[in-house]
Amino acid sequence: MGELPFKISVLVFVRDVRGRHLLISRAKEPNKGLWSPIGGKLEMAKGESPFECAVREVGEEIGLHICESDLHLFSMVSEKGYEGSSHWLMFLFDCGKRICELPKSIIEGKFGLFSESEIDSLEIPETDRKIFWSIWKKRCESGFTVLRADCRETLKYFIEEDSQ
After folding, report:
1. Shortest CA distance to 35 belongs to which of 112, 107, 102?
2. Most CB contacts within 10 A, which of 82, 113, 152, 162?
3. d(CA 98, CA 158)
């Protein structure tokens, strides 16, 4: 595998007032056709921080106005060779502010609200299924987990730090 671009992004785990998870069925790559938390890439040329990116993406994608104090950074994940096309450094946030209704579809995809048990039966990225959701369950309210994932052949991941 030659050199791949390195991208930095955020994923924001948002719930509604009933505790259901907001996911987007992505209309674009990466993860086209799969359900995922909302998020996007940092505007690195502007010096945007992960928290600033999360606030911006939540506002742009679902129209929810939040501030940095509404977010809990619960994980940082470095992925090697995702889909054979890039490396990713991702910051995973839980959003403390809840939505009241399902947002309207956007160019990036359509939204759905799902209980934790329903997520298991959805078409979601392998890394989300094997890594992100278990970390969210463990760390959504407190603590922080850092891990690296190697996606080049079969998914392997290693916890580098895990704290309460």
Report:
1. 112
2. 82
3. 31
